TrEMBL record:
Gene3D superfamilies attached to this UniProt entry: Dipeptide-binding Protein, Domain 3 (3.10.105.10)
Main location: other
Pfam families xref list: SBP_bac_5
Gene Ontology CC: cell envelope
GO MF annotations in UniProt: peptide transmembrane transporter activity
UniProt keyword annotations, A-Z: Signal, Transport
Protein name: Extracellular solute-binding protein, family 5 Middle
Species whose genome carries this gene: Ferrithrix thermotolerans DSM 19514
InterPro entries: SBP_5 (IPR039424), SBP_5_dom (IPR000914)
Family: Belongs to the bacterial solute-binding protein 5 family.
Entry-linked PANTHER family: PERIPLASMIC BINDING COMPONENT OF ABC TRANSPORTER, PERIPLASMIC OLIGOPEPTIDE-BINDING PROTEIN-RELATED
Solute-binding protein family domain mapped to chain residues: 15-194
GO biological process, one term: peptide transport
Amino acid sequence: MSPCKLFGFDFWVENFNNPVLGPVFRQLYFRQALQHLVDETQWIKSFLHGLAVPTYSPVPTGVANPFADSLSKTGIYGFSVAQAKQLLVSHGWKVVPNGVSTCIRPGMASNECGAGVSAGTALTIPLLFASGTTSLAQEMQAYKSVAAQVGIQINLSEAPFSKVIASKAPSSGPTCTWGMANWGGGWSYGPDYSPTGGELFSSGVRVGFSKVVPETVTLIDNTHTAPPSESQAALDAYQNFMIKEAPVVYQPYPPYQLSEIASNLKGVDQSPYGNLTPEYWYYTKS
């Protein structure tokens, strides 16, 4: 068995336009808390047979490349239920382990819940994920269990990949009630081979998410316009901001597939871009 690793990263998304939960998702401290509850190391060991790589930024690390810097390889929001709890408590939430935490200090001060978060807002979050993959279902069940320890009630449901993708289409208004969506495949760069994230996190893009931060757009634009001598510095600024900003919930990135390749089949190249090149394959005598 040979794992085919793609040049990409894995994550799920929050609905920043949800009329109740959107203001909560827009708080950096809350996104940090969500990330602290992802036990990537344990998920890789328990559910992904040690074959996946952790994700900390949109710049891939599973395939050797010159783009990822040291922070993209280590991250800054490691698994910690205690830190997730501390972030909630220090920002005005009454944390109820195995219950539902609520906002008790609304407002915009540094020790309050944040802009747009009303008193009594409850941390009950629907999470729709793609059906058909055992490891993804295990990961989401594990996340639900850990989140419950800080009073975040995750209501899981599953649906075919196409429905999950459709659910996160940009929208707004009182009917935009989905909470989080996880299609289980993340994103692979190809034919957009430079991991600048413009097609995901910039403004006016068809596959973009509903939260666009002006600083993100500027940093992405800089990766496109920097002279060659400054291109890596521009990419480093972008990826480090995306680690700290946590605009999505990063999760382990498993191989695209496990390939069985006959020992006498030569010329096989498992492309990190998912390309097949059978014109280069040939057999030798056993």
